[in-house]
Every structure is written in structure tokens, then in C-alpha cells.
Amino acid sequence: MTPVVETLSAVVEPVETLSAVVEPVEAQGFREAQSPHAQPQSPGGQAQSQAPRGVLNLVIGERNGRSIASRQFHQGALRVLRPHYLDDSGQVCYVVVNPGGAYLGADLYVLDVELEAGANLLLTTQSATKVYRTPGSFAEQRMTVNLAENARLELLPDQLIAYREASYRQNTHITMTPTSSLVMAEVVTPGWSPDGASFRYEELRLRTEIRVDTGNSAELLALDNVLIRPPSADVTGLGFMEGCSHLGSLLVVDPRVDQELADCLHQLSAGHDVYAGISLTRTVAGATGLALRALSNSTGELNHLLGACTAHLRNRWYGQQPLNLRKY
Fold it and tell me: Is residue 327 part of a domain?
């Protein structure tokens, strides 16, 4: 069975092969993603000149055992709520808010997040990211993340929902050190359509590039591409989404990632109603990545799986309790 998706560059020792979720973005898409602040391109290839609809810059530092915002800036349709501390670990939680409620055609959102040495951030969203019809041009989010020595980021947004005739691109560039830690999870689901059918959106491109700063250069650890184009092929069948409609992803980069952890998360996934597979990346300067991909017909089931995985990591590495963000 030929997969429609290639999960990561430099993947080694897969625990289980997950059939078909993504395919590599073509060369043009790769070039577009090199500069996170380049002008967005229309489907016809012409640059659009409008300013971003929302901008958010957040710098987190560590002071006396607690993480705080040392710099914060927002403009347009992006905000963060006041910080929360969910336990006594010193980890700060920020919630990103889009007052506009949804992404529309030609919308561009730019987020820059920086964690100083020893900082610890949980970043989530207030609600699902909804992408509505995008006539004329796609909606886009560009996010740049920089993690300093011993910094820790948990990036756990609510689900991404693509509605009928929606096109969306998400480019995430992460640079970290060999001692920093990253956990990011995401669920993608098709939105409601008048005829009740799934996959009425035009295109989803989700590209995540993770580099490790070795001191001499920022060496590529993983390149994760998701490209789903329902109009170009039947994405519901074998070799594609395997009869499922929802996609869940978990990316973990940490010096403590190893085959034993992959096996443990694989056993965890067996207790959920999903098709799941896990792969390890190569190791760069002591840091190793892990990718979990899961298919289901339920947002709730994928959230339960990803929540169980993140809860395992929080308890195993930091002695923290599972998350209960209570957004509604």
C-alpha cells in the first residue's frame, strides 16, 4: 500500500506504519516556507500586499523559579489572555484568542514565540481554529518558535476545522537547543457542509520544520509535511485516510526521547479507537524527535489519545498532573 503521506525526514525505526495521511509539499511550497515573513502567494502565484490580519509576539523568561512574559506585543486580530499558573511548577499558561472568530480568504496571521533559558510555557488557544470559505486566496498562519537552553514548550491548540471551499496553509518554524524540550499536538477535522459530506474543503497544508542549534549551525532534525487536497483525489479510501475523517498529530523533541518511550506511547494508543503509528527521527546533538500520527472519525477520541500521551510525558518527566484547561 503506497502512503499518501510522508511524515518526517530522517525517520528511523518506525514502530508501526500509518497508512496515508500526508504527502510531501512540492518544491514551490518548500520555497514559500523558507521565510516566515514573506508575502503570501495567491493560487496564481502573485504576491499579496496586504498586512497581516493578526500579529502576536511573546517572549517568556524565567524569574525566581516562575516563567513570566518579558515582552509581549499584539496587533490586529490576535490577543493573549492573562497568564495562568496551573500548578506550582512555575510553568506559565497563555491562551491565544482570535476575536474575529475565524480565518477567511487572504487572511495572514503571524506569531513569534521565544523562550529564554529555563523558561517553561504552555501555549494553547481559546477555541477551535475555524477556516471558512476562502475565495480568491488561501488563509495562512506563520509561526516562528525559538527555544533557548533548558526551555520547555507545550504547544497544544484546539482542533483545526476546515469548512467547505476552504484553503489553509500553516507554516511553523522551530529552532531549539539540544537541552530544550518541545511537545506539540494538533487535531485536524473537516467542518460541516450542507450536504453532510466530509472533505468539502479545497486544501490543507501543514508544514513544521524543526532545527537544533548545535552552536555552529541550526541543523535540520525533522520536516513534517501534511498536504490534503480532497478535489484532486478520493482521500477517504485505502492508502489515504482509511475511511476516517479526522487526523491527529503529536511531535515530541527532547534528549529523553528513545525507543522505549516510543514503545510506551504505542501501547497507550492501543487503548483508543484510532489507527495510530509512531516513528523516531535521527538524533542531532543529543536531541531526538518522535512523531505520532493517528486517524479517527472522532475529535474526542483523538483528543483523548493526545491527552493521554501528553499526560504520560508530563508525569514521567516533570511529575505534573494531566491537563484540564476547562475552556467551556
Answer: no
| Residue whose C-alpha cell is 453532510 | 196
Reported as a single tens digit per residue, the pLDDT across 174-184 is 999 999 999 99
Task: Express each pLDDT in 206-217 by its tens digit.
Answer: 999 999 999 999
What is the phi/psi pair of residue 271, to 5°? -90, 10
Instruction: Please give the DSSP secondary-structure letter assigned to residue 27.
Output: H
- Residue 212, C-alpha cell as written in the block: 537544533
CA distances from 226 to 217, 240, 315, 323 (A): 26, 12, 30, 27
Structural domain total, the chain: 1
**C-alpha dihedral, 111 to 112 to 113 to 117, nearest 10°:** 180
Rounded distance, CA 11 to CA 3, Å? 15
- Of 221, 220, 206, 121, the C-alpha closest to 172 is 206
User: What is the pTM for the complete model shown?
Assistant: 0.86
Integer angstrom CA distances of residue 185 from 76, 116, 154, 208, 243? 26, 22, 8, 12, 22
Distance CA 143, CA 141 (A): 7
- Could you give phi then psi for residue 253, rounded to 5 degrees? -130, 125
Contact 272, 308 (CB under 8 A): yes
The amino acid sitting at 278 is I
Q: Other CB atoms closer than 10 Å to residue 32's CB: what's the count?
A: 20
183 within domain boundaries: yes
Indicate whether 32 belongs to any domain. Answer: yes
Domain around 28: 11-318
Q: Does 186 map to a domain?
A: yes
